[in-house]
């Protein structure tokens, strides 16, 4: 064969071919530079190229000012002198674990609900890698915070294992006290790494971290298929979809003064709508404890240099030389007293959708956020790969630290100072999984808020000025309860829910004269349940309040002994029920009171008032015969604007409809949430009688997993109305949307710092509305990010329904009609 090759090359003058087999995979392979090797499930220890250690995930610090001090205490007591401590804070674009629960609780109800869920999920997923809109950034993510501790040695001795175990226990105790902590198993660890490398993967496979592929018989560094890196001087580019790049920057200057709480601002200033990263961010803070001997040598060296400078002319060329010398002496004293020094590396990896230029722009945005807090980031040209590797879990070895020290990327910090910079901050993670309202924090953390998760009551009071998105928020809250399997009764004033009810296929009831609605309260009572003392007491009390409102007792309390007339009314209602049961009427109550009036001088006025609601009276037809209003649809809207101005009738019908709502709560299984929703409550809820009626409603609602949800434009509206104020005082949850500054200033029970945050709440029409949730535990802040499809469903304009019906007449389904409305921009 060799001879044949030589002859052929001689004849034709060709370059001799080679028989060597080409090495197609001879280039650099990413797995070769990844340090992780195996995981010991028994000891929960990771073994990697340069050492061994543990990794835990912890809950974010939310307003815990003593968190840094507590972690510092654990480090002081348990961290081995030769150990490395690392905190990683990752704003993960994988929001499926949160949206997935929300989605699962809603799918399969109706085609329209399914489409609403899909549209919301798609909308949020489109935002998570960044968006191009100007004026405000709203990028949803799921924040994960990890703590890694490791020792650099080949073999982990029993003593080393005990030291790591002690450190792990101390950290878990700190975080379990205020949030949570759990060990990171290999599946979650690999899922985390695959996100950081934005690995190429099949569509739809970015689900639950705990379901990631893992083979215990294969080294960890070989279990990241699809991970590639293209390295340039100032960025890294990944292979996943969509195209993503990242730029790494390190902190090279810290402010002279700092407290732990200020670290929250490094995630973005809530009051600045554009003060947010443009994509996911990995923040990594690595601390290497300096041994006592090394710290002592460092002080001796610094002291010697200072003494030399002070005895020569060099001292006068050093700015603030006397102050610096004094600092060295103070530090020497602190070290002698037990203070520890740490060699630290603080890096920020800014991700962006697109190429290297986009990543550099993303890094510049983060740099400006840090600069406003007087923390300076350096542009680390030609150090992108080593700094990125050092930012990964267990990534920064002693050798790398030494190299970064020569590159002037390391900073020496005292224990207290380093603890104050730990990137442990995050936003509230919510109180529900599935049935709650889907929101994003002002910095982007996705969460669910569920008003039916409470140690107290489930009631909600919502305030928002005109244009703040209050009506849309209340529709989202109401529809969310319905789509998650609950029952909703909306009492409306102004037809704002009419469109939503019609689109959802719910029930709409109006007192517009076209249909004679009958509301005889006796026929609304449950005959079988009236034998129960508990039910009978509640029911008769509420009906008594309704009749008292008919008699106008609430507004005529002066000059009478309160409760006397009510006692007679209560007794009359009981007699009518005993005699006629559900066939009883208001006329029968009036007749019983007429008999009693022969001996009680205070009753003739009551009888005269009830004449209007009895047979032959102006309002009598509403209360004659069997009631024909039933809450037999999961979503029902009752419109009362057509009877405004008829004060007694309006209040009476409102109370009877609310009574219907409490009956629904009673008859519905406790596992199914039921809500009575009243928008513009200040205008509907009037009078002392209504206030007393609502007191009974809220007591009954709490008993049967029911919620009373009310909304007004300001807290002053609640305070100016006795009945509305009862709703406010009995609401464990208060929602603040954008308010006028003077309305917030009038909130006497709220601290000034919180008032400043409330004043910064705003809305961006068509994109999001910001809000604050006041709970017994404190305040949480969020954004309602609605998709165009949901906005079409929530539209209060009759023209929207008209156009939708036009398309449906052409053969479209409701879903197709709404999609067409959105695509053609016909939603008003």
UniProtKB/TrEMBL annotation:
Keywords, sorted A to Z: ATP-binding, Nucleotide-binding
Which Pfam family, any one, appears in the UniProt record? Answer: P-loop_TraG
Matches recorded under InterPro entries: F-pilin_assembly_TraC, P-loop_NTPase, P-loop_TraG, TraC/Conjuga_ATPase
Report the transmembrane regions from the record.
none
Instruction: Provide any one GO MF term from the record.
Output: ATP binding
Domain (TraG P-loop) spans 456-740
Q: Which SUPFAM superfamilies match?
A: P-loop containing nucleoside triphosphate hydrolases
Keyword RNA-binding attached: no
Q: What is this protein called?
A: Conjugal transfer ATP-binding protein TraC
State the organism of origin: Tritonibacter scottomollicae
């Amino acid at each position: 064969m060799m001879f044949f090759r030589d002859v052929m090359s001689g004849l034709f003058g060709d370059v001799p071919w080679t028989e060597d087999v080409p090495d197609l995979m001879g280039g650099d392979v990413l797995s070769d530079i990844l340090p992780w090797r195996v995981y010991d499930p028994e000891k929960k220890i990771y073994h990697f190229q340069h050492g061994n250690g543990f990794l835990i995930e912890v809950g974010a610090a939310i307003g815990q000012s003593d968190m840094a001090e507590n972690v510092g205490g654990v480090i002081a007591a348990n961290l081995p002198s030769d150990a490395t401590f690392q905190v990683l804070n990752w704003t993960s674009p994988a929001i499926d674990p949160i949206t997935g629960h929300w989605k699962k609780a809603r799918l399969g109800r109706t085609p329209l609900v399914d489409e609403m869920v899909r549209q919301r999920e798609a909308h949020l997923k489109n935002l998570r890698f960044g968006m191009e809109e100007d004026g405000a950034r709203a990028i949803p993510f799921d924040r994960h915070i990890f703590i890694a501790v490791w020792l650099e040695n080949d073999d982990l001795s029993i003593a080393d294992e005990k030291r790591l175990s002690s450190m792990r226990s101390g950290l878990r105790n700190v975080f379990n006290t205020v949030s949570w902590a759990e060990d990171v198993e290999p599946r979650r660890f690999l899922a985390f790494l695959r996100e950081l490398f934005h690995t190429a993967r099949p569509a739809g496979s970015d689900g639950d971290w705990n379901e990631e592929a893992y083979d215990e018989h294969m080294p960890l560094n070989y279990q990241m298929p699809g991970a590639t890196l293209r390295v340039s001087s100032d960025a890294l580019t990944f292979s996943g979809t969509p195209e993503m790049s990242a730029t790494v920057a390190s902190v090279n200057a810290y402010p002279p003064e700092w407290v732990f709480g200020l670290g929250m601002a490094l995630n973005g200033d809530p009051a600045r709508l554009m003060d947010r990263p443009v994509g996911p961010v990995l923040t990594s803070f690595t601390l290497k404890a300096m041994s006592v001997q090394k710290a002592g040598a460092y002080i001796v060296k610094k002291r010697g240099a200072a003494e030399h400078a002070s005895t020569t002319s060099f001292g006068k060329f050093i700015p603030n030389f006397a102050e610096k010398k004094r600092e060295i002496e103070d530090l020497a004293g602190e070290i002698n007293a037990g203070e520890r020094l740490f060699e630290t590396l603080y890096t920020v990896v800014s991700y962006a959708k697109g190429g290297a230029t986009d990543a550099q722009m993303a890094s510049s945005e983060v740099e400006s956020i840090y600069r406003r807090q007087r923390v300076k980031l350096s542009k680390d040209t030609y150090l992108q790969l080593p700094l990125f590797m050092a930012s990964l879990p267990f990534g920064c070895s002693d050798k790398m630290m030494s190299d970064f020290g020569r590159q002037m990327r390391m900073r020496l910090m005292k224990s207290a100072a380093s603890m104050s910079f730990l990137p442990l901050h995050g936003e509230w993670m919510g109180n529900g999984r599935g049935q709650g309202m889907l929101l994003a924090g002002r910095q982007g953390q996705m969460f669910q808020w569920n008003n039916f998760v409470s140690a107290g009551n489930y009631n909600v009071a919502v305030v928002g000025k005109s244009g703040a998105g209050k009506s849309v928020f209340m529709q989202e809250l109401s529809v969310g309860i319905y789509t998650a399997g609950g029952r909703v009764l909306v009492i409306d004033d102004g037809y704002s829910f009419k469109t939503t009810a019609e689109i959802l296929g719910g029930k709409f009831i109006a007192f517009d004269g076209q249909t004679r609605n009958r509301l005889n309260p006796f026929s609304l009572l449950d005959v079988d349940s009236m034998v129960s003392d508990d039910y009978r007491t509640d029911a008769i009390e509420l009906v008594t309040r309704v009749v008292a409102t008919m008699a106008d007792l609430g507004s005529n309390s002066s000059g009478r002994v309160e409760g006397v007339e009510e006692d007679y009314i209560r007794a009359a209602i009981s007699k009518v029920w005993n005699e006629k049961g559900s066939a009883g009427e208001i006329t029968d109550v009036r007749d019983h009171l007429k008999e009693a009036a022969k001996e009680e001088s205070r009753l003739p006025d009551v009888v005269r008032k009830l004449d209007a609601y009895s047979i032959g009276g102006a309002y009598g037809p509403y209360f004659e015969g069997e009631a024909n209003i039933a809450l037999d649809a999961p979503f029902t809207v009752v419109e009362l604007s057509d009877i405004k101005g008829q004060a007694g009738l309006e209040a009476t019908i409102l109370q009877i409809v609310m009574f219907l709502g409490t009956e629904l709560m009673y008859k519905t299984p406790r596992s199914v949430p039921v809500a009575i929703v009243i928008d513009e409550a200040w205008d509907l809820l009037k009078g002392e009688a209504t206030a007393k009626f609502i007191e009974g409603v809220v007591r009954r609602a709490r008993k049967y997993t029911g919620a009373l949800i009310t909304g007004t434009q300001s807290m002053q509206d609640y305070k100016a109305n006795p009945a509305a104020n009862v709703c406010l005082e009995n609401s464990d949850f208060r929602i603040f949307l954008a308010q006028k500054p003077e309305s917030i200033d009038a909130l006497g029970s709220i601290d000034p710092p919180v008032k400043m945050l409330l004043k910064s709440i705003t809305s961006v029409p068509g994109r999001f509305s910001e809000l604050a949730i006041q709970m017994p535990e404190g305040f949480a802040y969020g954004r309602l990010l609605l998709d165009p499809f949901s906005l079409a469903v929530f539209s209060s304009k009759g023209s929207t329904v008209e156009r939708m019906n036009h398309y449906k007449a052409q053969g479209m389904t409701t879903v197709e009609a709404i999609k067409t409305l959105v695509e053609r921009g016909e939603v008003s």
